Amino acid sequence: MTYDLAAGMERRKLVLFFWICSRTMSLVYPDVVRVVPGPTTFFWFLSTLLVCSFYICTFAILLGWLSYVPSPFKRVITISLNAMNQLSFLGFETVYMSALPWILENYRQSPQALSLNISGVLHPSGAYANDGQLSSAFSLLFPTSMIIIAICMIMSVSLSTYYHKRKYNSFFLSLEWARTNGFLSHCTMPNWMTGLPLDELKVIKIGNKLFCKPSTQATLGFATVIPAKSAPIVNPANKNEDETYILVSVNSLLLTLASLHLWLPKVFQPKIFGTSTKNEFTSGRGVGLGRDRYVHHRGTCLN
Q1: What's the pLDDT band for 152 if we cut at 50, 70, 90?
Q2: Cβ-contact 195, 9 below 8 angstroms
Q3: C-alpha 93: how far from its chain's center?
Q4: d(CA 14, CA 16)
Q5: Separation between Cα atoms, residue 48 and residue 93, nearest integer Å
Q6: Residue 212: closest CA among 248, 251, 186
Q7: Interatomic CA distance for residues 25 and 162, integer angstroms
Q8: What are the TM regions of this chain, as residue ranges (predicted)?
Q9: For 110, left (φ over 0), alpha (ψ -120 to 50), or beta?
Q10: What angle do CA 196, 6, 50 make, to 5 degrees?
Q11: Burial class (CB in 10 A: 0-12, 13-18, 19+), 276
Q12: DSSP class of residue 271?
């Protein structure tokens, strides 16, 4: 079982939030780099990667929040987040590297309030008069960065739409079929735009029922666990067909597998999103994991 990690970025809001927090400091790295004497190309290249990742994570979390904005349309625009990531890194590196001489010139030729006199030569110390004559690298490159993100988004949407038209004979993604699937009907379906692989042809159809594959469940942010006491040990082929599988958020998966939920008060325990018996999904209705220990399971197709 495999799934596209980048396609599920918009569903990883908690992870994206922490990534954005950790990348916020990277916005000042270009200013630090231009203070460094001597060759700065390598450090500028690395700082550009970090700045680009900040913008990508911010775009992904905004795309996820867009799902909560009601839409009057029954179809959504598709976007390839893989293409978005790759085009953004390429665009940022190309533009930022070409802007490096200008950024260095802007810093080193600005009026100095305090200089370092070394062997009779005045060197910048980083102190400038507070009269707005020196702008930060972030403020200088912010308009360009937004243009790069906008162009990459348009290109990613165009590529995804073209691919969707060729493969599914439709420019936009229809999600009406998801209402007939018990699992997907309990998930927050995207509005306006999405990078999630939710095409109807990617599910398993048996009769008049559509089954959501485990890979799609993982992309949407859910993992399957079972009580440790019911895990097959000798012969998995002889498993009980009526076994119940438990779906939890991937954000609480490590907490669940490490049995740390046993030490938490009931109100703080990870919640069960739903259960699956004979491939039929039942909502968990906010019930906690209880006092059982759990192990990971690859999951089953859900209706």
Answers
A1: very high
A2: yes
A3: 21
A4: 5
A5: 6
A6: 186
A7: 37
A8: 42-66, 87-104, 140-163
A9: beta
A10: 140
A11: buried
A12: B
